Amino acid sequence: MHNTIYVNLPVADVARSRIFFTDLGYTFDEVFSDDKAISLVLGENIVAMLLQRDYFDSFHPATTADASTTKECIVCLDADSRDGVDALVDRAVAAGATPGDTEDHGFMYGRSYSDLDGHSWQIMWMDPATATGAEPE
Fold it and tell me: Where do the VOC domain residues begin and end (predicted)?
């Protein structure tokens, strides 16, 4: 039904967010980035639009949640391996993120962090054989 997802998140400082997510290894689509918003490429057809808070507020009259004090959503992304989960979350924490929880169910592993604006990011890996119902090797 849909081809692309754009998650819009308010940020206090677009330039600071660019540095943070660059440190994590992400890139930006400069065609859709300016001084009010940056287009964070999370994967093929997965984009987070990080919008300066006043610009974000202009899209809807409702009060914007402060993600550092109010849970707004959890952005969950997959990784290629358990090591990939650890590497990304460790980079996020080194870049200033607040570490979150760790869940290890053997076949599924995840860790979370809160970014500089308090947005919650869950990075997870699941054993492909288990996910497809095949017998684990």
Answer: 3-126
